[in-house]
Amino acid sequence: MSSLWRHREFLKFWAGAAISDVGSQVTLLAVPLIAALTLQATPWQMGLLSAAGGAPILLVGLFAGVWVDRVRRRPVMIATDVGRAALLLVIPLAAVAGVLRIEILYAVLFLTGALSVLFDVADMSMLPSLVASDRVVEANSKLQSTTAAAQVAGPSVGGVLVSLMTAPFALLADALSFLFSAAFIASTRVHARRSRGSPSRRN
Fold first, then answer.
1. Which residue from 84, 99, 111 is spatially nearest to 38, judged by alpha carbons?
2. 200 assigned to some structural domain
């Protein structure tokens, strides 16, 4: 392809990654709002919630690259998107049932954070299998620019959703975004390059 803008498979992959990035930012905004507004969390509990969201970067990130390098990347990305959607649905369901507790928020934020780390690692690792070697830098630049934009736009989107739907139910739309991301990535056709002496395999 002379340009990644005409690379259909990359564009689908890029769309999925962008939606996932925005969804992650909405989660980081909405869950603390639920703790503060719905559960009236104490400053100590809010601190623990923040720690639960940041811990996966240190704990999961240590081995995520090694593990992702041994498995197929696309199924990892699809599974992590679907997993995050399922985890986020726990919060509005618990709110409707009247059993929502701060401990549930700790668990959901930690687990979604861990899945986000795996998604991001698989995201970067899959590029060489998706675009030509001389386009990897350009593709990586586009993904990084999308991630940066999501960090700015995501909280704004989350704020709008919270104001329209209240914080617990804003996560319904957030969960839906991860399912859309999974659908885009599932529709992307990717083949790993053949290594010398080893058979090629689909990513």
1. 99
2. no
